[in-house]
Amino acid sequence: MTLLDFACYAFIAVVFIQVICLLFLFSKFAFIKPKKQVAKALPVSVIICAKNEAKNLKTFLPSILSQAYPNFEVVLINDSSYDDTLEVMEDFQKKHTNIKIVDVKSNEAFWGNKKYALTLGIKASTNDYLLFTDADCKPVSRSWISEMCSQFNADKTIVLGYGGYSRVKNSFLNKLIRYETLVTAIQYFSFAKSGIPYMGVGRNLAYTKEQFFKAKGFMGHMKIKSGDDDLFINEAATPKNTALSFSKNSITISTPKKTFRAWVKQKRRHISTAKHYKKLHKFLLSIIYATNVLFWVLAIILLTLNFNWQIILALFILKLILQYTIYGISAKKLNESDLIIFIPFLEIFLITFQLAIFINNLISKPNHWK
User: Fold this and answer.
1) Which residues contact 280 (CB under 8 A, 6 or more apart)?
2) Measured distance CA(159)–CA(152) in Å, rounded
3) SUPFAM superfamilies from the xrefs (predicted)?
């Protein structure tokens, strides 16, 4: 058997694995519909942890405070900011009686650890139902709290939502950021729907206070400075206690990074956190990523050398058609349909950057909370 024969068989195996993933994993999210839940007026605490976010709070906090929900408070956590974050919070508090401020001072033992600040905010919250977002996030509708919290019931104590990024015209970086966010969401929604919940995003995430303390908060990974969202979900989520919220009105939109350097810095933190996931989750995610890399590398080599090109091209097109279909349906759910036409280009750039970031993380440790 020649090297090219081996590459051809490897490509067939890779496509087989990817087709299985698309048909039996990612389709779980693509083909489900949002469940219409009876509106609930659960008492909710919206928790926002902010470090040097004075400008963003002025811009985005009004969209939280104007939510059409009868019973909620907003817990604003000032995590040792050195700008005017605390003053901005206090100005809002003077105008809104449902704001509670938690001012976290510098603490040598927990300096720079967002999880410590969040823990103080959770303890200070009045209500048992907690809804998390970031200072630079804006709900797309006034029904955000209602949509997210409608998924809670006696069994469902964790709700995973979608936190997208705003669009920037004529920006490849913006498309890349949004595509990576979309792919990540397709993965964690599909895994959760398949009974293997492994992560959520702090831009749009909800769980009960009882669930938080039942899981002993962030104690299992307090020394890991990142992962207040995904590591907590990785530890606490089960097939029985996890619900999904992905209706159009449940989405939040954040401000994307404006430079590749800033985005890579953010992704370095996220990728470094993933190594602390459960073994099953790391194995499955590694298989998905490895087959993505091999698919493109082997396809380019074999097609360039015209080796069994009819078979290779047919398998290549088959995989892309399935991916366009399933990702397209999923993207429509999450209001990201404009990205689908660029899938081949965005995916090649994304897996290349992810590989570079992974190698960089092996050489030096990434920075964490601002």
Assistant:
1) 196
2) 7
3) Nucleotide-diphospho-sugar transferases
d(CA 312, CA 300): 10
The residues near 191 (Cβ < 8 Å, ≥ 6 apart) are: 25, 197, 198, 281, 284
Question: What residue ranges do the domains of the chain occupy?
Answer: 44-174+192-258
Look up the CATH number of domain 44-174+192-258.
3.90.550.10
Sheet holding 137-139, edge to edge: 137-139, 252-254, 163-165
β-strand partners of 139: 252
Q: Determine contact, residues 199/33, Cβ cutoff 8 Å.
A: no
Q: Are the beta carbons of 334 and 182 closer than 8 angstroms? A: yes
- Give the number of other CB atoms < 10 A from CB of residue 351: 17
Q: Tell me the residue type at 78.
A: N
Q: Are 284 and 196 in contact (CB under 8 A)?
A: yes
Task: Read off the pLDDT of residues 249-260 as tens digits, 9 standing for 90 and up.
Answer: 999 999 998 898
Mean pLDDT of all residues belonging to the chain: 92
Longest CA–CA span in the chain (Å) reads 76
With the C-alpha atoms ordered 336, 200, 102, 262, is the resulting torsion angle positive or negative?
Answer: negative
From residue 221, how far is each of 100, 154, 162, 236 by CA, in Å?
A: 27, 27, 24, 12
With left for phi above 0 and alpha for psi between -120 and 50, is residue 170 left, alpha or beta? left
pTM of the model as a whole = 0.93
At 305-339, the pLDDT tens digits run: 999 999 999 999 999 999 999 999 999 999 999 99
**Over the Cα atoms of the chain, what is R_g?**
21
Distance CA 211, CA 144 (A): 21
